[in-house]
UniProtKB/TrEMBL annotation:
Coiled coil: none annotated. Keywords: Transferase. One of its GO terms (molecular function) is hexosyltransferase activity. Transmembrane segments: none annotated. Residues 7-120 form the Glycosyltransferase 2-like domain. The lineage of its organism: Bacteria, Pseudomonadati, Pseudomonadota, Alphaproteobacteria, Hyphomicrobiales. This is Glycosyltransferase involved in cell wall biosynthesis. InterPro entries: Glyco_trans_2-like (IPR001173), Nucleotide-diphossugar_trans (IPR029044).
Amino acid sequence: MERPALSVLINNYNYARFVGRAIDSVLSQDAGNIEIIVVDDGSTDQSRSVLETYDSRVKVIFQENAGQAAAINTAVASSTGEILCFLDADDWWAPGKLSATAAAFRGNPQASLVYHRLRPTLVDGTPTSKPIPRTLCSGALSPLLTRSAGWWPFPMTSAVAVRRSAWDFAGSIPEQFRISADAWLVGIYPFLGDVIAMPDPLGFYRIHNNNWYRSTEDAATLRRRMTHWQHTVEATNQFLSAHALPARLHLADHYPYRIASAKLQGADARTRFKLAVEGLFFAGEPNLFRRTRDSLRSARGLSRLALDVGLSEAAK
């Protein structure tokens, strides 16, 4: 049998109400020569009964709960395609996503990662805001990531595809990334080849309470994010060192980490001014307008958010 050109890898955990739409959006693609692999990571809802309705059209693997990274690793190990396309079970794709992705890889043999924008939606699928990420980054991004401690306007998992040869070089996603496994994909693969950004929103990102990020911030959320960013920088440096790649990341260059730290510790006027100036030169946002806007917003919000965090802490 001909080897699939594209492997679609869906990770699912307790998304019985969503996973059918994700699979159907793949089955309706116009690209040929694809395989679909769903790894159910120990779901306790009705996921099994939903997945079993797809018969031979989809390869389904059930495993004990081990986290998103482990589910993706299992899916990749069971796949054979030259291009690996990732899809979270609560998201779905627009028609033409796979053919556009394949064409982008064919057009640049040096590309290790291809991505596109996603359109955020409410739980019911209603579009709710502009496609993300707003700023697109293409080409050799390793210098940018080196200056920003790995931060950039990165895509979410369901927008990412990587070349299998790059995956084979990088190895499996460390299982410490039980959630936000996309932090590994978007943090490592720009060091292995070019990145291609497609401007169209070729997928849909469902916003609901189980997502990693929240619309409101409290001390626990800030600490969780800071710990995640710290561990991601450490894991990236370990990878770069192990593969004799010269770049190294420094947490002091991670502007969102510094803002979160200031929110927790409190920031006087001088600190807010200093952070606003630093934000103007932060390499992680290449777009000058958005960089300026974000740095001013962050600095202005420090005193109010620090107060909110302090009140939250005092209420414990």
